[in-house]
Write a structure and sequence with these properties.
9 helices, about 210 residues, about 10% strand, 6-stranded mixed β-sheet, alpha+beta
């Protein structure tokens, strides 16, 4: 006779879960828009990185509008370099919560991303994104995001393993610092230069759009 069926623990099951709209190797790329669109706008960023904050504040809504119009699909690639350099786990914890938002919908995901970057703790060493209560409070600013299911995924850190795999895959894109934006593989400028590096505020919307095919 066959023995009893041994079911994997909930922890084992979560280890192999990816959130909705995550694809590519290990589901390390999160898309917004139609994944079958022939054009892609890739956004390499980090939740605790100040220039990623600047670029999102200035350009994320414009990027979203282009995807909504069907001009391209946005592909997000997330880093967690600040977790390593200044300590903490805010970038990975915030990304795990974003994964839970992706399960609710693409709109909730990108609006929650905008909220996290807008309310980014500063200075970066202030690691508030590692606090579940902070992530849930900020999620309350997104219509239709909070629910018992979403809150449980954030509280139980359902997507922490996925977030770890995602940031581990970041180095495969040969991006040395964040933020970087590429359209169909061609890098475009999104931040103004300061001290010889693109570490200033975002370029204007007009300058950003001028770099995209017309």
């Amino acid at each position: 006779m066959a023995g009893p069926v041994v079911r994997p623990s909930s922890l084992w099951h979560r280890r192999f879960m990816n959130p909705a709209n995550a694809n590519g190797p290990d589901g390390a790329t999160v898309h917004y828009g139609d994944p079958d669109n022939q054009h892609s706008l890739e956004f390499f960023l980090e939740l605790r990185d100040r220039v990623s904050h600047n670029v999102a504040e200035g350009l994320l809504e414009t990027m979203r509008e282009g995807a909504d119009q069907g001009r391209y699909v946005i592909k997000f690639h997330f880093a967690a370099q600040m977790d390593q350099t200044v300590g903490g786990a805010g970038s990975v914890c915030g990304l795990s919560a974003l994964g839970a938002a992706g399960d609710v919908g693409q709109r909730q995901f990108i609006e929650y991303l905008a909220v996290l970057l807008k309310d980014q703790p500063f200075p970066p060493g202030f690691d508030r994104f590692s606090e579940t209560s902070v992530l849930l409070d900020l999620a309350s600013k997104v219509d239709g995001l909070r629910s018992p299911e979403f809150d449980l995924k954030v509280t139980e850190k359902t997507y922490m393993d996925w977030a770890g795999d995602t940031v581990a895959a970041f180095s495969s894109f040969n991006v040395l610092e964040t933020p970087v934006v590429r359209f169909d593989g061609r890098e475009i400028q999104v931040a103004k230069a300061e001290g010889g590096f693109a570490r200033g505020p975002a370029v204007s919307v007009a300058d950003f759009l001028e770099q995209l095919p017309h």
